[in-house]
Amino acid sequence: MLVMGVDPGLTRCGLSLVESTGGRQVTARDVDVVRTSSDTPVAKRLLALSDAVEHWLDTHHPDVMAIERVFSQLNVTTVMGTAQAGGVVALAAARRGVDVHFHTPSEVKAAVTGNGAANKAQVTAMVTRILALQAKPTPADAADALALAICHCWRAPMIARMAEAEKKAAEQRRKFAAKIKAAR
Fold it and tell me: pTM of the full predicted structure?
């Protein structure tokens, strides 16, 4: 499974590609950070981000995309930019039929470090170790994008089991409702 991890942002957007061959075995395939200038109008920044993400999707053909869920911060402007960037990324994936999953920062930190409150240095160190990288990925947006992809690789089997259970439960509810209706 090829997972594209995205740490969305208007100034810096981390992009990564990680391959999972089953279990906890993951391999980094690519990582980059898209940068846009804060002096550029937001619409043009989003367009630049969209172009970069579409290039990645066309080049790498991921099976799934993992995007960091917007986390409430004190700075509303930052939250808005992050949400806009995440929306552009999700839209590009949806246009290509790539399944999109959102993970919270604490989910990602817990998955890669065992601590949902880990700091950036701890996340970077664990990403470096998990992927057996020769050097730490920099800036932090690159490490975060890799961590998102790793998190999804490790959570995907559980997500699939939950979806199957929800599907079975919905079918049971439908059958039960039909049985009750027939009994009336």
Answer: 0.88
Q: Is 51 annotated as a binding-site member?
A: no
Q: Which residue of the set 141, 144, 164, 166 is catalytic?
A: 141
What is the chain's alpha carbon radius of gyration, rounded to the nearest angstrom? 19
Residue 107 token pair: 């989910």
**Are the C-beta atoms of residues 42 and 10 closer than 8 Å to each other?**
yes
**106: region left, alpha or beta (phi > 0 left; psi from -120 to 50 alpha):** alpha
Q: pLDDT tens digits for 116-136?
A: 999 999 999 999 999 999 999
Confidence class of residue 73 from pLDDT cuts 50, 70 and 90? low
* 68 annotated as ligand-binding: yes
Domains defined for the chain, CATH in brackets: 1-181 (3.30.420.10)
52-55: long-range pairs with CB below 8 Å, 24+ = 52/13, 52/15, 53/6, 53/13, 53/15, 53/88, 53/89, 53/92, 53/93, 54/92
> Residue 14 — φ and ψ, nearest 5°?
-80, 135
